[in-house]
Q: What sequence folds into this?
């Protein structure tokens, strides 16, 4: 039922009340969950890695969980901030990070009392400003066109908030439809932009929530809704309204200056690197907005697809400041920030040089707290099983990512905790294998997190839980870097045999591993001692200052005993050598 709320005078919080925001979060996650595979299929820009739908779903899912966990008395502006903050922490991939910033802009605009059309404009500009080199024809264009169309309708006499939102959905659809005529990679594939399609679903979910949620306004507030309401929310027609494939475009003229740093296929050795930066309230050294600019500048030197989002304006208890001062909500804008709240930033870059990206993270660790860096290889296809590993060795982290793992790299003084590994595993949305220290603690953390995610009427995707005793997570003990190095070879062996069970292969490799830690000068003797009782596979993990001749001698010694030898570098200075023998 449309609300007859004047578009010019209404605030976002007048239109999107508590019932609407709670319904929107659930519907958006549900719609992206249903369409994730279709959107993944058309993901060819900026990198053809087929995961945009999944990344946007996982991002919005975490935002929806944050809304579901909000106290019963939370207001609509506070819920919007929770939605955005949860999405920021849960952001996956380029598209997910951008979407989280769009949600942040919307939340900040709602908090200060903006009208819906103005809030959509703030959200679009906030998302665009987060990207170092924005491209035309993407989710950013869809956000821009949605905001412009909404603004035009809002200026008409008698226009309602419902009219404005319908116009925004129409504008986003039009932009998505024209994307195939804008970007050459899309034209060659005959598909629409995946990120733009995802934003259409998020906006249409808001349209449906606005139309339906008022009818349930008399139901008790809280995390859950009645069975009838939940059922209605599930079946309400959130619609993409687009054919994503089968488009034929005779000629394309894309504006080169807007996407020169993008590329349609991942470099054969390119990695996606993401990390969260926290800076304490009152931290000095940067003016408002300058943190994001400085991060983007640093990251642009090491790679492309640079996106930096976040700031100090998503405190859940900032509701008393609704209707505050004006201004835009670009990344880093202080807005109505809680003076006691940390600022939080989500950082994203594609790079072939992991060492350089980690150097940026370490540099910023001196200006705040950097959570463990997440690394994955862009050219590795998604599998039914997500492997999560941890190591402090940069070169080994890159090798693990090449083998198909999601790798967590600590940035001192912050280490990788069992909860970090469990979050990475559960966040994949698939069955996961975690190889790292303290497997019992990882399993316990996974159980707690899985239980939290199931709390209330919280499921949004309709998918069944994968098998496993800890929310679909299997954890194996890999306490040192040499154990992680052995996993590299095990994953390669499993990839070569389509019938192999990855978990069994990795478990077998780690189960009988014999380890010695030594120096370059004593490595030969240490290997001889390990091989005295036999061995089929030798793994050598050496620091970067170990001479190549030492590695060659170890390979020869292994071969003389009939053992295969795998040699890997840590990517760290030093002369240390760690040996692992299987069999």
A:
């Amino acid at each position: 039922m449309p609300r007859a709320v004047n578009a010019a005078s209404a605030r976002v919080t007048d239109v999107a009340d508590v019932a609407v925001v709670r319904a929107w979060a659930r519907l958006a996650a549900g719609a992206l969950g249903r369409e994730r595979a279709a959107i993944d299929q058309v993901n060819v820009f900026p990198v053809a890695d087929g995961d945009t739908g999944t990344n946007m779903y996982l991002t919005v899912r975490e935002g929806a969980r944050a809304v579901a966990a909000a106290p019963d008395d939370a207001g609509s502006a506070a819920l919007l901030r929770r939605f955005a903050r949860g999405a920021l922490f849960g952001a996956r991939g380029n598209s997910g990070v951008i979407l989280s910033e769009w949600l942040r802009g919307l939340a900040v605009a709602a908090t200060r009392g903006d009208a819906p059309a103005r809030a959509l404009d703030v959200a679009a500009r906030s998302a665009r400003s987060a990207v170092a080199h924005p491209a035309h024809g993407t989710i950013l264009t869809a956000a821009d066109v949605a905001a412009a169309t909404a603004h035009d309708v809002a200026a008409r006499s008698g226009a309602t908030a419902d009219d404005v939102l319908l116009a925004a959905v129409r504008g986003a659809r039009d932009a998505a439809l024209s994307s195939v005529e804008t970007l050459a990679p899309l034209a060659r594939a005959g598909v629409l932009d995946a990120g733009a399609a995802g934003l259409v679903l998020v906006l249409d979910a808001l349209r449906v929530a606005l139309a339906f949620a008022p009818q349930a306004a008399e139901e008790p507030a809280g995390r859950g809704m009645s069975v009838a309401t939940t059922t209605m929310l599930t079946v309400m027609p959130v619609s993409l309204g687009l054919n994503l494939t089968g488009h034929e475009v005779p000629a394309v003229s894309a504006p080169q200056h807007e996407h020169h740093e993008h590329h349609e296929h991942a470099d054969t050795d390119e990695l996606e690197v993401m990390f969260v930066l926290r800076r304490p309230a009152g931290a000095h050294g940067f003016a408002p907005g300058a943190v994001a600019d400085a991060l983007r500048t640093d990251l642009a030197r090491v790679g492309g697809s640079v996106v930096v989002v976040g700031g100090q304006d998503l405190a859940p208890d900032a509701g008393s400041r609704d209707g505050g001062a004006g201004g835009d909500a670009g990344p880093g804008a202080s807005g109505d920030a809680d003076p006691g709240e940390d600022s939080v930033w989500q950082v994203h870059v594609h790079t072939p040089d992991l060492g350089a990206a980690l150097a940026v993270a370490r540099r910023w660790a001196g200006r705040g707290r950097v959570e463990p860096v997440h690394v994955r290889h862009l050219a590795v296809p998604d599998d039914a099983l997500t492997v999560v590993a941890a190591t402090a060795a940069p070169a080994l982290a890159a090798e693990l990512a090449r083998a198909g793992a999601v790798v967590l790299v600590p940035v001192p003084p912050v280490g990788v905790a069992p909860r970090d590994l469990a979050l990475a595993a559960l966040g994949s949305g698939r069955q996961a294998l975690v190889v790292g220290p303290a497997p019992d603690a990882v399993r316990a953390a996974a159980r707690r997190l899985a239980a939290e995610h199931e709390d209330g009427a919280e499921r949004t995707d309709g998918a069944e839980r994968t098998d496993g005793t800890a929310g679909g997570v299997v954890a194996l003990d890999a306490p040192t870097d040499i154990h992680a190095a052995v996993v590299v070879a095990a994953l390669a062996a499993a990839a070569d045999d389509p019938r192999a069970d990855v978990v069994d292969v990795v478990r077998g490799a780690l189960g009988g591993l014999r380890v010695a830690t030594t120096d370059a000068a004593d490595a030969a003797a240490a290997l001889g001692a390990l091989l005295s009782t036999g061995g089929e596979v030798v793994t050598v993990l050496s620091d970067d200052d170990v001479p190549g001749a030492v590695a060659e001698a170890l390979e020869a010694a292994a071969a003389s005993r009939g053992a295969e030898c795998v040699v890997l570098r840590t990517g760290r200075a030093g002369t240390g050598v760690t040996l692992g023998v299987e069999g």
Notes: The chain is about 45% helix and 15% strand. The radius of gyration is 25 Å. The chain has a mean pLDDT of 83.
